[in-house]
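Q: Hi! First time asking for a complex rather than a single chain. Here are the components, and I think there are two in total. Is that enough to go on?
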Amino acid sequence: MITQEKSSPGTVLLILPVLVLLVLFFGSVIHLFSNGFYDDGEFSTRYFRQIVNRSDYHMVFLRTVVSSLVVAVLSVVLAYPIALLLWRADRWRNTLLIVVLVPWLVSLVVRTYGWIVLLGPRGVINEFLAWLGIIESPVKLMFNDLGIIIGLTHVLVPFAVISILASLLEIESNLEEASGILGASAFQTFRHIVWPLSLPGAFTALMVIYLACIGAIVTPILLGGMTHNFVGSQIYQEVMYTFNMSKAAAWSICLLGLSFVSLLLLKSIERRLLKGRN
Amino acid sequence: MVQRTSTMRLLGIALLLSLPAPIIIVAGASFNGGGYIQFPPDSYSLRWYVETFTDPRWPRAFAVSLGIAAATAVIISAVNFMAAYYVVRYAPRIASALELAIFSPLFFPHAAMGVAMVAMVGQFGLLGTAPGIILAHLVITLPFSYRPIHIAMRSIDPDLIRAANVMGASEWQALRDIVLPLCRSGILTSLLFAGIISFDEVTVTMFLIGPNITTLPVQIFSFVQDSASPVLAAISTISVLVTFVAVMLLDRFAGLTFFVRRDAA
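A: Yes, that's all I need. Here is the structure of the assembled complex.
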């Protein structure tokens, strides 16, 4: 619909609401920065210095980054077979897509609750293992890093499926046919055609999932408990329990910086890998 | 080779079925007659659903969430419809700059977003109120709602509008009789997608609730932390049902292909 018209002055009003929302959003970011650098009414880098100096805080950041990387890689790996299944299933694709979309859109807190029911000391998995006689006392499956990683991965696999499937659906079917006609085996076709062309979707998924993980609060609190803090759970505690907005803002700024640097790194890795292929 | 393909396929089916598994187990456990979470249930009863509806806190949180989701979906779809119409018809040159701004909240980690939204909502004195939560939800759903509407708007044939204008239709008539109907599936996708996101949002919303207002997911979050009552399984099942119905409506009236296309808006 490119009929560019001379806009009468009134039409500018159409874009006003969206601009108001954007101004509010960017205003809140500026507000966040001023909060982080002000403490008791004066300029201060106190909370940043605290983050740099305290080793228990280093641990929180390290746990967040490492767990998020593990979850991102794991989600993409587990999503591949599902995405391939949906891609091949022409007639059933829509039905199977619903099986992926519903868990993706159901509230995070409900899905995490599902994992508490499964992983808890009296949960479904422990009861089942005890019933089989494999274990005598419950195994600790949550309130540790393992629980957080299981929960976050399960929460984010559907997004990876959608992202990889989107890439696969872009592959022109005659490309595959040509490869077959030229004598390539199914595996060769997969290796040289399907796999490389699915990589952009896989990388998008990797980045988005990593970002979602380092900012997570609900799943780390519910499955990790208060002893296995994520950056997000620390921020939540500062706001809700100690009411220290300056500290929460300083942590949020560090989280933003972390996501920005990680994104640049992941982008450069992606570029190098994809270039090496060509 | 055939074997390798079918192994991969079986693996795919197993993994696919694992996605809804925890939700299905919760739904199963919600029908348990006993006083604790049990799957498979040893007896069947609806007592936990009865209990959910007799405790006034759950119906209230449910109504609040539904109201906030409806308000968010309608407002953000209208805002984005106007913006997309303006950009496509009058100012294609600013399209990419506007998109960059609209998609920027996506790169914000949720925890940082929560703190930023406290600052934004607090500025207007709206912390712990429904308008405050709606305001934050508008920012959160902005990119998700803009994309389907913009895609639909962009794919309208410009000649249709020109023809309407030549035949003497006013700007308003062309908008009402041509643009709006042709954007129907984009608008429906935006309404339902934004509605689902708002209804299920918890990470940012839990910073904004107050003594007088809380949403369903946030209330589930605070109950899960210190209770193991099967009421949680019942209310979770109800919340899943709402999302499921919304996805089915989306499938029926707009189709799901929107979710698996790669072209940026």
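A: Chain A touches chain B through 93 residues (CB under 8 Å). Let me know if you'd like any chain examined more closely.
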